[in-house]
Design a protein that fits this description.
Helices cover about 75% and strands about 0% of the residues. Helix 2 packs across helix 7, helix 3 crosses helix 7 and helix 6 crosses helix 9. The longest helix has about 40 residues. About 0% of the residues have low confidence.
Length: about 240
């Protein structure tokens, strides 16, 4: 009985509408925060998406939000997902995200034993998006944006594109294609954090730490989808960046 309920829960919450509902609060915090705080600094993945879309004549500060909406609608049509939602199921989904964020935190701590511990603690405790002048509220806003848009860019888009390219074009079998796509997307995700004026100074230990994080988020994305992964990412950043700092 409990097993059938759990399977039904996984099946129901795999629908796009649940991912959208779970991510929505983080989406609102990020966009309302950047508007009301009147900051000129936005999440790096958001900025990159805006720059890419501008090359296709889509010029708007909300271009990333538009891409997210279009992606959701395409996903909804593709899987023929219903629009009904049981809001009570969002509570355990949030609990999942919190649990996976805590697990990543402890795994990262374990990994730090085998790398440069002092450097990793300093990297985790500082804001990767250049915290000077933003305050804790500004950091909360940026961390919510990181969950929403870094998962959109590196997992929903890049991981999917790499996997489909390997399977359809290079005729690689699904399992190895997924593995290579995860590794490639995770390496690019890690390198992304060292690019630009707000990027961190490069070090092998920090690179490996973020690559591990990318692999973790990729595996979670394949198991539980965009919503739980995006919420997990945002909660992990909030926990490490605000509660520990």
């Amino acid at each position: 009985m409990k097993s059938s309920r759990f399977r039904r829960y996984l099946r129901d919450t795999d629908r796009p509408i649940y991912s959208a509902a779970l991510v929505f609060p983080f989406f609102v915090i990020y966009h309302s925060g950047t508007f009301f705080l009147k900051t000129t600094y936005i999440n790096g993945a958001d900025a990159l998406i805006i720059r890419i879309l501008s090359a296709f004549s889509v010029r708007s500060m909300f271009a990333s939000a538009l891409l997210l909406l279009v992606g959701f609608l395409i996903w909804q049509v593709k899987v023929r997902g219903g629009w009904q939602i049981d809001v009570r199921k969002l509570v355990p989904m949030f609990g999942e995200s919190l649990l996976f964020a805590a697990l990543l935190f402890f795994l990262s701590g374990w990994l730090s034993v085998y790398l440069n511990r002092a450097h990793l603690i300093a990297t985790l405790a500082r804001n990767a998006e250049n915290p000077v002048g933003y305050g804790r509220l500004g950091l909360l806003v940026l961390y919510c944006g990181a969950g929403v848009y870094e998962e959109l860019l590196f997992r929903a888009i890049l991981l999917g594109l790499l996997s489909q390219t390997l399977i359809r074009v290079l005729k690689v079998k699904r399992a190895p294609a997924a593995a290579w796509a995860m590794i490639s997307a995770s390496v690019l995700f890690s390198l992304f954090h060292f690019i630009g004026p707000a990027g961190d100074p490069f070090s092998i230990s920090s690179f490996l730490q973020r690559t591990f994080g990318g692999l973790y988020f990729s595996a979670l994305f394949l198991m539980r989808g965009y919503g739980v992964t995006a919420a997990c990412h945002a909660l992990y950043d909030i926990f490490v960046g605000l509660m520990i700092n």
